[in-house]
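Morning F.,

Quick status update on the modeling queue. The single chain you submitted on Monday has been processed. Sequence for confirmation:
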Amino acid sequence: MLKRELEVALRELAKYKNSNTPPSANKHLRDDTAGRKAKEGAKRGAPKGHKGKTKILEPERHEVVDTDRCPICGGVNTVDEEIINRVVEDTPDDMTPEVVAAEIHVKRCLNCNRKFIPPQNRAPLHGSYGINVMVLVVFLKFLLRGVLRKTALFMESGFALEITPASVNTIIQRVAEAAEMDYEDLKRRIRNASVVYVDETGFSVLGKNQWVWVFRTRHDVLLVIRPSRGSNILAEILGKDFSGTVSCDCWSAYNFLGNANLQRCWAHLLRKTKEFTSPAGLAFHESLQSMFREIKDFNETGHDPVERAAKYEDMTRRLETLLVEYSQHMFLEPVIKYIGNKLDEWFTCIKIEGVEPTNNLAEQAIRETVMVRKIIGAFRSEEGKESYEILASLMATWKLCGLDLRKKLKEMLINRMCLNVS
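Structure tokens below.
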């Protein structure tokens, strides 16, 4: 009985403490580091000299709030006790939607015989909702992680726009259809990238487990959701002849990329060895940690290709020696095998400039989808899944590039839905 309960408890613990789960996902298992680091008696807040982030606002109109009559007794004998000057940002009281009847003239040029719509048009050629409504719905869904029902409720309560959850879903699908061309361009950029960080996580679709794959570069984030965690997804997105560098964990599917330079994730590795508590295990972990620090120190300074190649050979040889030294410890056998099977793929970041030693960039990119999974539980249609992968990819890419999300989304929708004549 106790043995069975222990097995159940260990299986449950494995969901939280494993090499594939970053520490940031288990804040409930960590100490109160903020409280521990704070000095006793120290004041909270920014240190002296901190510039702060107070915005300097330029008023667009001036409003005088004054009266000669007392609201309590009705007297008219009043004087100013003080004058308070405030500058505030606010929205208009009237947030009701505007209904616009647009007469759109589809023109034909007699010189080139092409059809076009006047470039000032802002009315979608299909559907009854305007561009601004679509942008707001997408922001509520993807930036605030709103579910359909609550998004519809917010639109009705905040903007007096009567809209059903089904209509919210239709808007999202329509926006996703408009974004398909940009999504395909994003796929092409990923396939042609020199360095790609890849990760995957499970997500239920119609009650069946599928996989969200993230492909991230310095400037792009691509999400695809597929029923497979196999190498066929890598073939679809990167191509079987991909010859760039791929940062990943040690999942066997990545072995498919025979022409690529693989960088195995040191964060995964160190999470595995951090769990050892015996003297030999602690020493082994510290040796690996020392190598990891050496990688970071080396990459912080400039080196030519010859120096990098020599350093790569040196560190690979030292890692091999370390594995031989600790191979006598039976409890280390799984992790030694984990490292040894990919011995030449742990220091690619030394050999090739600009490659990170961990796959943290991909893990960060997929974290938003993990949060969405916790909120909605599952995708309840294939269309919803496809809309999510398209719009989540573009929003994440624009955000990564520091672009104005509202401007980019609005610009895309106007070009695709208001000016594009089929």
